[in-house]
Amino acid sequence: MDLCDLEQVRALLAGTGFRFSKGKGQNFLTASWVPERIAEEAGLDRDCGVVEIGPGVGCLTERLASRAGKVLAYEVDTALRPVLAKTLGHLDNVEIVFQDVMGRDLAVDAAEKLPGLRWRVCANLPYNITSPVLTKLYQARCFDAIIVMVQKEVAQRMCAVAGQADYGAFSLLTQWYARPEPLFTVGPECFVPRPKVQSAVVRLIMRHGPPTEVDETAFFRVVRAAFNQRRKTLANALDGVCGKERAVRALLSCGMDERVRGETLTLEQFAALTNAISNLNI
Ligand code: SAM
Prior knowledge:
Number of strands: 9
CATH topology of the largest domain: Rossmann fold
CATH architecture of the largest domain: 3-Layer(aba) Sandwich
Bound molecules: S-adenosylmethionine
């Protein structure tokens, strides 16, 4: 069965009670080159245990399973249970957990269900939970790489660097945990139902530890304050964090202009500024 063939998929879904749900971010791939290329870009081998979020009817899952040691997939829509039993039931290296991925402890699940393998994520993510699920995947700190399809504008935010229009708190969160690389874009015509926006695939090579020496909580407090009030100068935006006067002193001690805006600072500069603020607080 061709799991990207629209007619075959419609026939498969008929009579199962399945209805496409916008709330569950259900846009299934119907262009076979896309899951093929995503699976290829994931660089899998039999030592890999792959975590997939949202198998849908299984078009990406079957390609992951043909390359990896095992695939562990989370699917929130139980109406897909009989469908997936038909499409993937014959694959003994696929395990599907019919639960909301957001409620799972991914490192615990991986240890239990993917023992002895290198853990990697590969998924066409549901658009409605992209940021929270990515944050969860980053913070699990147990994956060596994450290859995901997301909305193109989210991909741009993940990969943006200081000074670019898409640069923001989510860029810094992503780059704190990983080195992101944009791979390719995918048009709405490759899905059913068609989304309104372009999609893009990003590969994240996960870091083994923090990218620089700074207290993580303090760093993200500064970053959030900087981008919550984008139009303000950084010193004004940091008023609520440490007081404007201290923020100015910290900026100057780092060799930065007191009128600088957060969107021009690199991750390392944000870290230096956070350390300078902490030192002034002592
Ligand atoms: N992988 C399939 C494909 O590429 O055609 C389907 C991808 S579709 C964009 C997203 C999938 O994620 C759907 O199957 C949806 O039911 C599932 N999903 C949505 N929210 C979820 C959640 N919180 N936990 C697990 N799966 C979820």
